[in-house]
Specification:
Elements: E1 2-6, H1 13-25, E2 30-34, H2 43-50, E3 74-77, H3 80-85, E4 94-97, H4 110-135
Parallel strand pairs: 1-2, 1-3, 3-4
Helix pairs in contact: 1-4, 2-4
């Protein structure tokens, strides 16, 4: 099964989703992430995932255009902007949308920002665990 996880910048939500799904599903799923306006993987996303025991430090932010010819079984959008901008992908590509707030938009000290990333991580993990039960 091939899954693409999308958010606008491919810096936090989709990156954490990619790492979580890879961790939870193992070799049963090929998982990718991308964004309409890719940037870099947010260091707080890396820290939040490290705190969960998952290393995403080697992941890279990618543009969704590189996947437009790829057939996916599922395309999961994790922010409203990505859901609105999501292009059509060839093949079965069943679309799923889960709206998560942007943890990078939180102002405050490092502990408050990290807590927002961890809250989104935990929400993503819960959604992914429930979804995996229905498809694997």
């Amino acid at each position: 099964m091939k899954v693409l996880i999308l958010c606008t910048a491919n810096s936090a939500r989709s990156q954490m989703g990619e790492g979580l799904l890879r961790h939870l599903a193992g070799d049963k799923v090929e998982v990718y992430s991308a964004g309409a306006k890719p940037s870099t993987v947010n260091p707080f996303a890396v820290r939040a995932m490290q705190n969960r025991g998952i290393d995403i430090s080697g992941q890279r932010s990618e543009h969704l255009a590189q996947y437009l010819e790829t057939e996916f079984d599922y395309v999961i959008t994790v922010c409203d902007q990505a859901a609105d901008a999501c292009p059509h992908f060839p093949g079965p590509a069943q679309r799923i949308h889960w709206s998560f707030p942007d943890p990078a938009a939180v102002d405050g000290d490092d502990s408050l920002i990290l807590a927002s990333f961890e809250a989104v991580r935990d929400g993503l993990e819960e959604k992914l665990r429930d979804w995996i039960k229905t498809v694997l």
